[in-house]
Design a protein that fits this description.
Radius of gyration: 19 Å
Largest sheet: none
Number of helices: 12
Oligomer: single chain
Distance between the termini: 6 Å
Length: 254
């Protein structure tokens, strides 16, 4: 395998990135099942397909899937750009990266409390009020406006992912931040599509999830707080460095 290919494989399969990507996907999933997102799914489904209510059930499944996929694409583009930007920030201030990650760790701890309902000033939702024309053409634009707003169940988890992106920008590979944001969007977007189809088929009740939403939010908040403590204490950076060192002790052979 060529040197460039081996380096790429080694990077993608590295322990630190796999660990962070797993956390990013889980953060996206937790955001999806939160009270700020899950109840809104039927409305988004109706909007991006140009239909609502009983008429939605009469529409072909492909239109529902395409509409929500375009919606997911819209917020994915915005989040990936943000991930790349934060990773670039880590690269730009690489010599102060340790301090920067500690500061962002404190932000993530605060985000964890916000996710669980703390800090009342941050519990208000702020969304762009302008709406594109309902239907498939407006779906990606609606997704972008969803990404550009603030919701106490999405903003905190995204903040954690963007903070992790900073820790991967120190070696100049800023695309890793984009990858983390993309994985976060998979965790948030794939359930969107699955639930949209379930709603279309008349089976999107999710009774168990609704019944345990409080527990899910608490677990998600604790997850963010623990991650923030690791980052603020320096353990996260030390852990990533240690894992990276272990990976570099092995040669990727394909």
């Amino acid at each position: 395998m060529s040197g460039i290919g081996a380096e790429f494989a080694q990077t993608v399969l590295s322990g630190p990135l796999i660990l962070a990507a797993g956390a990013a996907a889980l953060a996206g999933l937790v955001s999806f099942v939160s009270p700020c997102v899950l109840p809104l799914v039927p409305g988004y489904v109706g909007y991006v397909t140009g239909l609502s209510g009983s008429s939605l059930k009469d529409k072909e499944t492909w239109r529902v899937v395409v509409g929500i996929a375009l919606f997911v694409l819209g917020f994915t583009v915005v989040f990936v750009v943000l991930g790349t930007g934060f990773s670039a920030l880590g690269a730009l201030f690489s010599q102060w990266q340790g301090v920067l990650i500690r500061i962002l760790g404190i932000v993530v701890v605060i985000a964890g409390f916000v996710f669980m309902g703390g800090f009342g000033l941050l519990q208000s939702e702020h969304r762009i009020q302008a709406r594109p024309k309902a239907g498939l053409w407006g779906a990606p634009v609606l997704g972008a406006t969803f990404a550009l707003g603030w919701a106490p169940c999405v903003g905190p988890t995204l903040s954690a992912v963007l903070s992790m992106s900073v820790s991967f920008g120190g070696d100049g590979t800023i695309w890793r931040g984009a990858l983390l944001a993309f994985v976060y969007c998979l965790g948030l977007g794939i359930p969107f599509i699955i639930l949209a189809v379930a709603i279309h088929k008349g089976a999107g009740r999710l009774t168990w999830v609704r019944r345990h939403q409080t527990t899910i939010v608490r677990v998600g908040g604790i997850m963010l707080i623990v991650l923030g403590v690791f980052m603020a204490s320096g353990l996260w950076n030390a852990w990533m460095t240690s894992l990276q060192g272990l990976i570099y002790d092995f040669e990727v052979v394909i």
